[in-house]
Amino acid sequence: MRSCIRLATLILGALVQFSAGAAQPAANGKSTLWSIKGRENTVYLLGSLHLLRSSDTLPASIDKAYRDAESLLMEIDMDNLDPMASQKIAMELGILPDTKSLEAELDAATYTKVAAYAREVGLEERTLNRFRPWLAAMTLTQMNLMKIGFEASSGVEMRLTARAAADKKEIRGLETLDEQLGMLAKLPAAQQREFLLYSVEDSARVRKDLEKMVSAWRKGDVKALSALLSEGYARYPDLYRPLTVERNRKWLSRIEDLLDDKDDYLVVVGALHLVGTDSVVELLQKKGYKVLQQ
């Protein structure tokens, strides 16, 4: 489940790291926050938790970085995200033609498992049957997480977006929602089916696996988070490559450009983009930048 939850939630706002309790700073003072000194400014890189419970609090290090920053960059521009337009994009990319169905896209055994799980999380089968496999996997994963109490509205991005709106701080996006969803929509049919099957078969392990991941996040345990990412990459390299490594490389020049500015910035991306091989942090370090974990 760890691999599939990470994969499913990298895109639609229910990312891989979730909090099962209040997110407190680690005893050693480290967190999933890094800083880079530019010519005249500081750029902060925050490894985000996109989904939280409403009772969760954020580490103090996030508050300080937010206060220092004049502008924020997120994976997408959250303050200009139109819910209706977003739904339209998802439907255009994820809904099957009227002449097709998810049941016909899958073998009988797989469809039986998927349909049973959909009923368990509260998704009607007639709705499920209209989805392409990637969208079915995303939807079922999100519904499962919502069922156990996690809300995108309480996640780091949404909290910072609300605060930035009140403070009149600019938010920009590193990519568009079309680009994000397009990566999943372009996955070969066999990979989409694999993604859906594993997201269903391992769903019962989600609580335990979330605890492991959030424990690493709270401690700023880069080694543990890297191991989680490596495990997923080893099992699903063709899925992880476009969703992590390729995006990290695309973002690199945008982040470097910020270091020539006078303003301070807070860059907020999923925490797994900042750890491990070919992470944003490692790519910057390879180019000679001193990236310090806070």
Secondary-structure topology with pairs:
Layout: H1 2-9, E1 33-37, E2 42-48, H2 60-68, E3 71-74, H3 83-94, H4 102-105, H5 108-121, H6 125-128, H7 133-147, H8 156-167, E4 170-173, H9 177-185, H10 189-201, H11 206-219, H12 222-235, H13 237-258, E5 265-270, H14 280-286, E6 291-293
Parallel strand pairs: 2-5, 3-4, 3-5
Antiparallel strand pairs: 1-2, 1-6
Helix pairs in contact: 1-12, 3-9, 5-10, 7-10, 11-12, 12-13
Written description of the protein model:
- The protein is an alpha/beta fold and 294 residues long.
- The protein has one domain.
- It is built from 14 helices and six strands.
- The protein has helices at 2-9, 60-68, 83-94, 102-105, 108-121, 125-128, 133-147, 156-167, 177-185, 189-201, 206-219, 222-235, 237-258, 280-286, and strands at residues 33-37, 42-48, 71-74, 170-173, 265-270, 291-293.
- Strands 4-3-5-2-1-6 form a six-stranded mixed beta sheet, sandwiched between helices.
- Strand 1 and strand 2 (42-48) form a beta hairpin.
- Helix 3 (83-94) runs parallel beside helix 9 (177-185) and helix 11 (206-219) crosses helix 12 (222-235).
- It is globular.
Strand content bin: 5-15%
What is the helix tally? 14
Radius of gyration: 19 Å
Strand order of the largest sheet: 4-3-5-2-1-6
- Give helix and strand order, one letter per element, not per position: HEEHEHHHHHHEHHHHHEHE
Summarize the biggest pleated sheet: 6 strands, mixed
Shape: globular
Terminus-to-terminus distance: 30 Å
Number of strands: 6
- What class, by secondary structure content? alpha/beta
Helix content range:
40-55%
Unreliable segments of 5+ consecutive residues = 1-27
| Average predicted confidence as pLDDT | 84
Q: What is the number of domains?
A: 1
